[in-house]
Amino acid sequence: MSIHDRLRAHGITLPPAAAPVASYQPVVVDGHTAYVSGQLPFIDGKLVTGKLGEDVALDRGIAAARACGMMILSQLEAAGLIERVAHMVKLGGFVASIPDFFDQPKVINGASDLMVEVFGDPGKHARSAVGVPVLPLNAAVEVDAIVALKA
């Protein structure tokens, strides 16, 4: 089954790929590896902002991380690479949070679970989930990816 078929089967419609907000490329390919720049969470076209543990609830943070994952998929689609994904290698997750918020791994599960939903076993990956004091544009979450590509 193609990735596009899997997306349809799961009722997933990818959002348009976001344009870069600074001086970088959304996706860079080196050999059989794609590096996807950090993606921000847009839900219904609006950026999810704020800090977990302060003004963003855990379930909203999980949804924001899933939205970041959707944008990673959109960037791969825009680059013509989504059907070439051999497996997800690593996700890097950053969660804007207050000092005593400790559920960063639960938040980033929103993106991780999406990758397994879309790719199955090849969607399983290594990962980091890091709490940070602030993210670009006051985003609540940011996720980047390293992706192995089929030849």
UniProtKB/TrEMBL annotation:
Residues 5-143 form the Endoribonuclease L-PSP/chorismate mutase-like domain. Coiled coil: none annotated. CDD domains: YjgF_YER057c_UK114_like_1. SUPFAM superfamilies: YjgF-like. This is RidA family protein.
